[in-house]
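Hello forum,

I keep getting stuck at the same step: I have a sequence, I want structure tokens, and every attempt I make locally crashes halfway through. Rather than fight my setup again tonight, could one of you with a working pipeline run this one for me? It's a single chain of 379 residues.
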Amino acid sequence: MIRILHIVHAVTKGDGLVNFIMNYYRNIDRNTLQFDFLYFREVENDFKNEISSLGGRYYKLDEPSLSYKFFREREGFFNIHGKEYSAIHCHALFATFVFADVAKKHGIKTIIAHSHNTIFGVGLRRKIRNLFFVYAARNKATNYVACGEQAGRFMFGNNAFDAGKVKVFTNAIDCNKYRFDIPNRNQIRSEFGIDNSTFVIGLVGSFSKQKNHSFLLDIFADICRYKKNAVLFLIGGDGLIASSTKNDVIKKTEMLFLQGKVKFLGLRSDVNKLLSAMDVFVMPSIFEGLPFSLVEAQTNGLQCFTSNVVTKEVNLGLCTYLSLQDSSEVWASDILKKMENINLDDRFHGINLGRENGFDIKFEAKKLQYFYESLEKKH
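Reply #2:
Ran it on my machine without issues. Output:
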């Protein structure tokens, strides 16, 4: 049995990178390969029950710090569990720096650094700190992994990527689950009292600065000037890394007199159904890696409007890229103009886009399993 220890901030349903791991975990051969999780923050909506049901385990440590307590906890964990793992797979940016040396000390030869983003973050202090973590990951990891080419080049450098040292595993999904479905559309619209003529805009993403909800509200307010029966679905929980922006978003909703039109739906287990209920997906993010939600939305056949900082690798054919330097009025105008010629029949082709562009989890999970098995054979 090969066991891999995944290191994440929290085992939360609201974090894209944890959803990445779980999508693969559900589709690997768990008779020969198992995942465990090391995390640092407790959250209400987590994957603990599902991890246990799949045969995995989860362990919590204090958040990494320079305290004696943390160093003692870290040493104690690997002293007890180190021999159980073939590799540690570091998803949290700091994880390679914090855990690589102690893992090697306790006999774990494979240290995997995984790039999920394409910039160092927002704010000078964060950027300097993350720059340090990126270079530590390059030097301490034995294997490089990324969600896409841009993320791989960002974290590990062009030379490493061009030399084939970075393995890419896409943010793959269960394409069949996210296909467009009329009964799902009708069910969700009925649940919210929305008729067929209502124009539904949506975003799936945590309430963090990165997702730029404030600008999305400006776009939506401009759309409402032309479409009085428009509704905005905001799906997602509080941000983990940055402070939550949810309260600020709620206040701005009230300031723009959009109460009732903006639906704060929280974390949902039926995102596939909610996507079918939408007419357009808008993601004006300040930065992203390769966002799951854009893959899911396009597989559902939705037209997607996103900022031009988002990698073109995520474009399955339904993404329109707009500049964050453009005004909200420009975004609103482009969205409404594009949507004039779109009808529901076009939505049924989305599932083929997901499959044809390498985002089908059934295939990608086999690639990841082979990757882990090949590392095990080397040792």
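The longest helix spans residues 361-378. If your local run keeps crashing, start a new thread with the error log.
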